[in-house]
Amino acid sequence: MPDDRFREGRISDFVFEHAERQSDAVALVLGERRWTYAALASAIDALASAMVAAGVVRGDRVATLQTPHPDYLIALLATASIGGIWVGLNPRYQLAELRHVVEDAAPKLLLARSEVMGRRYERELLELCADLPAIQRLVIFDGDPEVPGAVTMAEFLGDGRACSPALLNEARDEVGGRMPCLIVYTSGSTGQPKGAVLHHAGINEFCAAQNRLWPIDPHRVLSYFPINHIGGVVDTVLPCIAAGGAVVFMEQFDPAGCLALMEREAVTLWITVPSVFQMQLDLPNFADYDLSAVQLIVWEGAEMPAGTIARLLQTCPKLATNYGMTETTSAITVVEPTDDIVLLSSSVGYPFPNVEVRLVDADGRVVADGTEGEVQARSNLNLLGYWRLPEATEACFTADGFFRTGDLAVRRPDGSYRLVGRLKEMYKSGGYNVYPREVETVLERHPAVALAAVVARPDPIWQEIGVAYVQSSGEVDPAALEVHCREHLANYKIPKIFVIEPDLPTLPIGKIDKQELARRARDLAS
User: Is the pLDDT of residue 164 over 50?
Assistant: First the structure.
């Protein structure tokens, strides 16, 4: 394990440390390809040099549209190593979603795939570059169709040879600590995604602490989470790199293929969200996969039923979970490896190292054990703020520096915490955050929709799914609404059920009564 000095360094430092200590050790895997730590360090240097040659300076943003692929990690670490701020873009995003993030972050460079799984992005990329003058260079990853006006990654790297090692070192001088290195877009109650700005020191400290809490040797993890997701970047990939382990990438997830890859690559950390575990356990041939290499099973993003936990214990006797948010660099509470089904199923554990946790009432007073209160967290891991949103940044912190999560919890007699609800309307479907107002806004753009309200209902596979109640101003059917949503939203945000109503219930003040709609949603026939 690298020593604590890396907490104040750069998130890229781990790679270079391991390149010196174990240069031939495998760092990244994709299909039959392998990247050693020496090769990874060389790739980071080459791309960072190209960025410096292209005029990227400290504080500039670099956006990347890519699948869970080694190229995204190289882009992230190259950007961060020279003081840039990296932004991940999900290939599932539709144009409006891409436009909001890219317009807000205003990257100087856009590194992009031009085709993913048969979907072409040329039109979207050209529109973004034409409409957003902040983008000075569009670079297309090698192997993808060329885009007019863009350069290939090979050409971009070639230009980087003009950057001398001395110039690269100068760009990296004094980079690290609490300097920003990553923006992760996460929505709020308005449904408009906000950019949470994370820093080197917080990510490094999280990686070091998580690896101490969840020791694995060798550390080998499978990553298929999208690159704009905190779970894919901070929870899964970077701790593995910090430990000198191997990240096995999977660009397109499927339950059986994931298990086969875990078996082939002797994955030791099985980490995902509860809905994925359920899909995999339900496979008729699950028992045929050899998962004997697994040393620890971890889930994040939602609670896990006790029955599922019991089944997972038959595969591995050590299970763990945590509770955190993008804004807290994933760290609020944690359960260390255990076989205690009660603890694992009924709590989110104890405060993460060096994180202060408190529960408060509506007046900001700390509540007694056993009483519901809002979870608030204070630590050096918390976000620096929301990108270009000073008022939202101020509102998310208390006067004494605690981050307001909007989640409700109870502190149990043993000091562990149990989540009981959310002050905010956000719900989790398959481990992904879904923000109703964002979906409602899209629905209300449909010409036949007068009002829309989205609520969540429990689901045995996805934990929660969206139910959209629509007040129509014309003829419309659920299938048409689903098509409309697919044109503007990533698929995990699309409601699973659409209900057309002549009128939506309202409160005396005229607001839509979402509690009544949530009750109706729970009562709907499956």
Answer: yes
**Closest residue by Cα to residue 422 from 189, 228, 232:** 189
Q: Are 371 and 420 in contact (CB under 8 A)?
A: no
| CB atoms inside a 10 Å sphere around CB 400 | 10
Domain that holds residue 469: 427-523
Question: Which has the higher per-residue pLDDT, 229 or 278?
Answer: 229
pLDDT tens digits for 298-317? 998 777 888 889 999 999 99
Strands 417-422 and 350-351: unpaired
Q: How many angstroms separate the CA atoms of 302 and 318, rounded? A: 18
Please tell me the predicted confidence (pLDDT) of residue 3.
Answer: 46
Q: What is the count of structural domains for the chain?
A: 3
Place of tokens 């599932």: 92
DSSP classification of residue 352: P
Distance CA 222, CA 269 (A): 8
Same domain, 413 and 283: yes
Q: How far is 152 from 145, CA to CA, in rounded Å?
A: 9
Rounded to a whole number, what is the distance in angstroms from the first to the last CA of the chain? 49
Q: Quick one: CA dihedral 36, 52, 182, 121, positive or negative?
A: negative
Nearest to 327 by CA among 347, 303, 355, 353: 355
Q: What angle do CA 391, 383, 171 make, to 5 degrees?
A: 110
Report the distance separating Cα 399 and Cα 34, nearest Å: 49
Mean pLDDT of 406-418: 93
Residue 476 lies in a domain: yes
32 CB contacts (<8 Å, ≥6 apart)? Answer: none
| Span 318-336, average pLDDT | 96
User: What pLDDT does residue 300 have?
Assistant: 86
Give the domain CATH number at 345: 3.40.50.12780
Q: Determine the distance from the C-alpha atom of residue 5 to the mean position of all C-alpha atoms in its chain, rounded to a whole number.
A: 26
